[in-house]
Design brief:
The chain is of the alpha/beta class. The chain has a single domain, classed as Alpha/Beta hydrolase fold, catalytic domain (Rossmann fold). The protein is built from 14 helices and 11 strands. A 9-stranded mixed β-sheet has the order 1-2-3-7-4-8-9-10-11, sandwiched between helices. Strands 5-6 form a two-stranded antiparallel ribbon. Bound molecules: alpha-D-glucopyranuronic acid. The site of alpha-D-glucopyranuronic acid has 9 residues, from α10.
Length: about 425
């Protein structure tokens, strides 16, 4: 009787756990239990040579580090013809109750007709002749980031979410506006910025086999057998951000030479990798990106490489799974990813209740990237202690810790628009 009861009990627990969307709280959340670690020096070549000049960084160390991140973490894109074709689907002159122009632009790739294409949504000021632009991907599609009732509902595959109106993996009318609090378009437009976004699932659906229906499948063939070092989903999403930036060059009223890339959580990891791989982004913004994003992986706190590669192996190149048992064997840590953004501007943000993403690990990564920014003539974080919540520190490399849960809010966007004001002297 007893073994049977315990079997039933464990079934019940498993069922209850599977009903919850909350991440399993595996991992260390005790600051005093973080084991010691030594970070790799971003200013030391693999062969031990010290990097002492900006030229050495640009011509030797930066390419070396970029290759290491491709090989070990995110994977490299194949050589291909990435020329895009754009179609302006719509221009609405009086969007957001007359405050903005709205455009919808479809991006396809003539070399890969199997790729479904990206539908980009742009809100831009009505008066500015050439507005700087913030570019980012969404979790729920264009109809979810905006409350406007005349935006078509995305027909792409979505992760299940009852509260976001996704039924059997497809969005319904109930999902309209469900992500709008994360996208304060009217406020950004009032500050003089355009905002361009698209659904990440247009580029690649976010599940282990999603690559077959995304750009990776269209390019590699759906029977491809993945090898170490080849591109993972984050690389594919980052690639999509670059194609969106290509397309913005042709959007009237948008100044694509002043572009910021922004993302939250898994899409914050993506924004960082896009910012690293595409130097046209003058401002790179990581919001609560955590493990595989701005947080140090050598530091054992919150989510770890072992946990993330078990839950989301498709985000990374195959090689990354190897570092689950010992992250310190990975030859790079995430402060070096942040360093690869130098000398461009960087914002890193965390939230007090988001221990899963390791706020302190994100702050320490930004701090440890400082020597590279300084070598390239830019200030680093300019503080050494983690700031109190709700205060942005730094001028070129910026950091803030918002009070509250894992999310991106208007207050976060306000900090990012201030950074952009400083960068583009507005
Ligand atoms: C999970 C995952 C994180 C990720 C987050 C998100 O919690 O473990 O790494 O950042 O999802 O994207 O919302």
């Amino acid at each position: 009787m007893i073994p049977r009861f315990s079997f039933l009990f464990s079934l019940l627990c498993g069922w209850l756990a599977s009903m919850s969307d909350a991440p399993a709280r595996e991992g260390n959340f005790d600051e005093s239990a973080v084991p010691p670690y030594t970070l790799p020096d971003p200013l030391k070549m693999e062969d031990g040579t010290a990097v002492t000049t900006a030229q050495q960084w640009t011509t030797q160390r930066r390419p070396e580090l970029l290759r290491l991140f491709e090989e070990h973490v995110y994977g490299a894109l194949p050589q291909a013809d990435w020329t895009i074709q754009t179609e302006l689907l719509e221009t609405k002159e009086d969007a957001l109750d007359g405050q903005a122009i709205r455009r919808r632009v479809r991006i396809t790739l003539p070399a890969f007709p199997a790729f479904r294409g990206i539908e980009m949504l742009v809100y831009q000021p009505r008066t500015a002749p050439a507005a700087p632009v913030f570019l980012g991907l969404s979790f729920g599609g264009n109809h979810a980031v905006s409350t406007e009732p005349d935006l078509p509902i995305s027909t792409a595959w979505m992760r299940p979410s009852k509260e976001k109106g996704v039924v059997e993996n497809y969005a319904t009318e109930a999902s309209r506006g469900t992500e709008s609090s994360r996208w304060p378009f009217a406020e950004m437009v009032a500050r003089g910025y355009a905002v361009a976004t698209a659904y990440c699932g247009d580029i690649e659906p976010d599940h282990a086999d999603g690559w077959k229906d995304g750009i990776r499948g269209a390019v590699m063939g759906s029977d491809h057998v993945w090898q170490e070092g080849e591109w993972g989903c984050i690389s594919a999403w980052a690639w999509g951000l670059s194609r969106m930036l290509d397309a913005l060059n042709d959007v009237p009223g948008v100044d694509a030479s002043r572009a910021a890339v922004v993302g939250h959580s898994r899409l914050g990891k993506t924004a960082l990798w896009a910012g690293v791989t595409d130097e046209r982004f003058g401002l790179v913004i990581s919001n609560d990106s955590g493990e595989g994003g701005a947080a140090l992986k050598y530091r054992d706190f919150g989510e770890t490489p072992a946990i993330i590669t078990r839950a989301f192996p498709h985000w990374f190149t195959k090689t990354y799974t190897r570092y689950g048992p010992n992250p310190q064997q990975c030859p790079v840590d995430q402060h070096e990813l942040l360093a690869l953004i130098a000398p461009r501007m960087l914002c890193v943000a965390s939230a007090t209740e988001d221990e899963w993403a390791d706020p302190r690990g994100e702050f320490l990564a930004a701090l440890a990237a400082e020597p590279v920014f300084v070598l390239l003539g830019k200030p680093g974080l300019e503080v050494t202690e983690m700031p109190a919540p709700d205060r942005s520190v730094g001028s070129w490399v910026r950091y803030h810790l918002r009070t509250g849960p894992h999310n991106i809010t208007s207050w976060d966007w306000e900090q990012y628009s201030r950074a952009a004001d400083a960068l583009w002297k507005r």
